[in-house]
Request: fold
Amino acid sequence: MTATPWLVWKSLANRRLSAGLALLSIALAVTLLLGVERLRNDARSGFANTLSGTDLVVGARSGPVQLLLYSVFRMGDATNDIRWQSLETIAAQPLVKWVIPLSLGDSYRGYRVLGTDLRYFEHYRYGDRQPLAFADGKAFGEVFEAVLGAEVADALGHRIGDRIALSHGTGRASLNGHADKPFTVVGILARTGTPVDRTVHVRLQAIEAIHLDWTGGAPIPGLGLSAEETRKFDLSPKRVTAALVGLKSRAGVFRVQRFINEFRDEPLLAILPGATLQQLWGLFGIAERALLAISGLVVAVGLAGLVAVLVASLGERRRELAILRSLGAGPRQIFLLLASESLVLAIAGSALGVAMLYALVAALGPWLGARYGLTLGLYGLQPREWLLLAAVLAAALASSTVPALRAYRMSVADGMTIRI
Amino acid sequence: MAEDALQVADLRYRWPGQAPCLEIGRFSIAAGEHVFLHGPSGSGKSTLLALVGGVVLPERGTLQVLGTSLASLRPAARDRFRADRLGIVFQLFNLLPYLSALDNITLACRFSGARRQRAGDVSAEARRLARRLDLDDGVLARTASSLSVGQQQRVAAARALIGSPALIVADEPTSALDAQRQCGFIDLLMAECAHAGSALLFVSHDLRLARRFARTVSLDEINRAGGAQG
Reply:
């Protein structure tokens, strides 16, 4: 019996190319399977963690998912604004504790610019009701001051005191600039793993100021106001894109929602962010399951490749099996030998797959975060991931019986007869 | 060691779905005896070897190897018996190509605790046998696939001999060697068998080799089965 592990090792080492390729295919399949699972998980928790403590999101009447996407995830654009007046009416409701105005539409080198006020830094919560914190500097005070999300500052290498020029619209290469009215970076937020990291925050008044000399989405020819000159105008906001609403008690949420949805002065929409997140996730759910199913199939292909390699090698190894039989190896030992070979390859392949997953997460995680806002964590294997690994190994165990049974039958039929 | 190395009486065997290929009335090998069994191809020698090795069981009659009736043993015990008591040398391709010559020799001891015990220091014993068979240490370190055929056969002989099994079975072990080396190999094999006190059943179609043996038996004469094959 002691001969088996040693022979497994020697025999595999002898066929290191084919065995290595089979191992690699399993490793890649496992990386893919766990990668998809991890991406799914991290995307889901990243989504769910984006906003907390907000009871209602208010915007112009459109679809709930669309409202959530542009107000919270900075994806897509609003179809319409809401009046400042409406916001003040809502804020005055007895059940309402706070309102955070959000004004979107400009960008800074591909990052969205958010016009808001100090209530944002005070009431905005993400993850497990964590408040925003400053990594450096402080909140904006003057009109032309900006607070950068962690990602923006990191990616563009900005520090406190830097001057930045915003662009009109949300395209990365927007030609219409606001270069005539530069902003000074006064604060940089600590990393949150949410879209806040990819946002440039300015005062609502700043949004008004940079658009003073604009009309219909283009600068008014001949009317170029300098930053200094804008101070003479009334910069109090007239319209915003959306608002986050916090209530004194969650119990009143449906009452306030109904009040907003039936708002008399203009058509508004109030959504419960949690419920809409669920809805949004439901949309991704199908794609997500399909992705997982495909990676499951890739694992099956990898295992089939492993079985094929081992079965194909049996033809050449008939002689080897006969020699082992002549030395006293029983058919059962032959079975064990072949089964262990597949299992060793599957286990080593899975281990390599996990290692590759972590290497990949470590290497690509920051890029994915910067580019797609997907935060991939370098945490240990989760229960579900262990379960998937166990499933892979169980499938490997089951498929290992194919070459093993064949070898068993061959060694019973051939005995010690050496057939070439 | 008093019992015969091999005792056959009224033996008959047929491969599934075929006519009987082996029918032997009486044949025996004494303990420590060296016998040349002459069997041209098709005389049923492979079948006889499979029976001696306990890989197949006689359809009728008795076959005792070293006093033990293999038919009375369970399959696992037969495998164990073969590992412990028999040394087998094949015609060709005796070795696992990916193991070193030394590992190939000691492989026999890995499957048998009894042979491991009898060998004592397995590695030292393997080297001693190898030296007796004209294999130097440089050869032992090389993988089997890089050895010449003659070296491979001597490594195979050393593997059969290690741990002194009471019966050595050699199936055409010299057919891949040239005439000069054939005699040298047989002399070495017989000398080592004598040293270990092992009986030797040397099977070959080549009668020229029989001169070196005290006793020659023709399988054609003792096998009464007609359409013998293999």
